[in-house]
TrEMBL record:
GO terms for molecular function: catalytic activity. Gene3D superfamilies: alpha/beta hydrolase (3.40.50.1820). Residues 1-26 form the signal peptide. Keywords: Signal. PROSITE patterns: TAT (PS51318). Residues 47-272 form the AB hydrolase-1 domain. This is Secreted protein. It comes from the Bacteria. InterPro entries: AB_hydrolase_1, AB_hydrolase_fold, Sec-Metab_Biosynth_Hydrolase, TAT_signal. PANTHER family: AB HYDROLASE-1 DOMAIN-CONTAINING PROTEIN-RELATED, ESTERASE_LIPASE_THIOESTERASE DOMAIN-CONTAINING PROTEIN. SUPFAM superfamilies: alpha/beta-Hydrolases.
């Protein structure tokens, strides 16, 4: 006796068939369609905002809004945070289907991601580092974080895992969460309310231990014009480390009295630097 499939099963099969068919198509038309419906840049470069550890793309919301009001196309992708090589490869693929010139903006660990993802892409006209790691090839975010004193990630310099982080094992490795009781100090330098900090801590995306410890393979800042925003009150990456990396990269640098999450507390400053990078490299 034949058994007819349920409506939900037919819908699932239809969706699977559509995905399979779509996989065989070129993806460029999709990028063009997205550009037509979402981006109204009028020839401006697309700004790609890359979040770091213990955050997600929603942290860029105010920055996105201001850039869009100024006429910039904007993308704020969700980064897996599971490994520097894989995260950079993920971003590089996204850039391939994003039309036009590009400005990549990285916050925190996102700086390492954009440095590697931009390598060899001649459409990237500027790199903007926002309280970010700017590693050279062979350097990891974890090593750079302890190169200078001042980070509040650990009160024990000999701890294998910084004491402000909570390790959570999974089948493929270890995720590192920023402990809720440390979040406001480490990530925000106590500059936002306890209520706001508690929400951000509850919604954070963890970083894989591999991601923070994996050495960079590329340093696109050696060939791409770079800009840096140093957060002078940063409790995650020591400001001295941010200044060192920015100077080494030859980045056009500005500084703000701000915490690590400077894009939350000083979005106007971040937007001004991005717009400056767009103007000076167009």
């Amino acid at each position: 006796m034949s058994v007819s499939s349920s409506p939900s099963r037919r819908s699932a099969l239809a969706f699977a068939a559509a995905v399979t068919a779509g996989a065989a198509m070129a993806v460029t038309p999709l990028a063009d369609a997205v550009a037509d419906t979402r981006y109204t840049g009028g020839g401006r470069p697309t700004v790609v905002l890359v979040h770091g550890a213990w955050a997600d793309a929603s942290g860029w919301s105010t920055v996105v809004g201001q850039l869009q009001e100024a006429g910039f196309p904007v993308i704020a992708p969700a980064i897996p945070l599971r490994g520097l090589s894989s995260d950079a490869a993920y971003l590089a693929k996204l850039l391939e289907v994003t039309p036009g010139p590009l400005i990549l903006v990285g916050h925190s660990y996102g700086g390492a991601v954009i440095s590697q993802a931009a390598a060899g892409n001649d459409r990237v006209q500027a790199l903007v580092y926002v309280a970010a790691f700017i590693p050279d090839a062979g350097e990891s975010a974890a090593a750079l974080a302890v190169k200078f004193p001042g980070s509040h990630l650990s009160d024990d310099p000999h701890a294998e895992i910084p004491t402000a982080l909570q390790p959570v094992p999974y089948d493929g490795g270890i995720d590192l969460y920023l402990r809720p009781d440390k979040f406001r100090d480490v990530f925000l330098s106590n500059r936002l309310s306890r209520q706001r900090a508690a929400v951000l801590a509850a919604t954070q995306r963890p970083a894989g231990a591999v991601a923070l410890g994996e050495p960079a393979q590329e340093a696109a800042w050696k060939t791409v014009p770079s800009y840096a925003l140093v957060a002078g009150a940063d409790h995650t990456i020591p400001p001295a480390a941010e200044r060192f990396m920015a100077q080494r990269a030859g980045a056009h640098t500005v500084e703000a009295d701000a915490p690590h999450a400077v894009h939350l507390t000083h979005p106007d400053t971040v937007v001004r630097l991005i717009r400056r990078a767009a103007k000076e490299t167009s």
